[in-house]
Amino acid sequence: MGAVRGAGSGAAGAARAGARRRRPRRTPPRTPSTSWTPRSAICASRSRRSRPSTTPPPGGARSPTSPRSAGRSTRRAGRTSPPSTPWTSTATSWTARRPRGARRALDGAKDELTRVKADLDRFAESLGPLLGKAETQLARLAPAVERAKQSLLATTSALDTVRAQGLRADDLAARLATLAPELTRLNEGAARHGVAETIQRADRVRREAEALRAEAERLPERAGEIDRRLVSLRTRAEALTTRSAQVEPVLSELRRRFTAPCWQDLQHVPEEAAKHVAQAGTKLAEARQAREAQRWADATALLATVRALLDETDEAVSAAGDRLRQLNEVAKDPQREIERTRFAVRDAQRLAMTGRQTPDPRHARPLDDAVARLDRAVTALEGHHPDYWQFLRETEAVRGTAARVVELIREERGGS
Question: Phi, psi at residue 381, to the nearest 5°?
């Protein structure tokens, strides 16, 4: 029985040992051929393949001192109580420090994100006005270009209407043609010329086109106005021709009744009047030719020259008749002119003394000089053949002095 029990236990031990030998080894998963295999793993694999067989001896008895059983005992002991090594305490302290390091890293990352966010906010604030300006310009771009094109189209239509009425507008058409390159640049768009430059160009084209359209629409009215001015100035020139012929009799009466200083400066009036009227007639003819050729600018300039000539002639012809009238009045009653002048001086003196015990020298001195000047003019009237024209100029100068003093006083008191 003991032999049978020993044989049975030996067979069971051998079966268990064989099962352990047949147990598949756990190998790591295969990695792709491109991965790197450590040299230590290769060496361990080779050592396992070259390890000698540990088959138990016949009879099922297991050798207690076999290398395999010794290794298993050692590994069990290692799993049960791991050996104490010097790096165990270091790993434990490093594991304890890991939360503190992670906390510091997290705080640093948070501070860096805060700084970056502040920089981005400042950048966004600096971009705000630029973006607003860009949006405003982009919103203005399309309407500005469209308005410019519409203005050009309206100007073209206005020129067509004027030509249909039989009026030429060559100068306006030439000015409109100069806007064609600008229209081409507008069609090229802001992508080539820039938003701001395109908007400025569109506004400029619109203004010039609207000005041309206004001139074109006013062209029929302008033609009618030129026709009316031609008739009016021709009539006035004819009237001045008649009045110029009457200057000579006026000069004859002045020579007969008054001294030479009273009329000497009027001697050239008849000749100058006739000359200016002739020049006006020539310019009128040129203006009429320009009107027929529809050179509107030339016709307008010539009519302005005619008007200036006739104004000068009218003033000279009128001066002769006015001189005779003034001299007749002062020769008949010089006292009237004297009292008129003295009243102006006394009024200025009264204003200078208002609110004061003594007058301001700046006001008193000119008024005293004016009084003395008036007295000398009155004295000059005594005797035979007085110079009434010089007397009238002196009294006018005295009244001018009094008026300047009054204006000065009012400015000073108004400013205070």
Answer: -75, -15
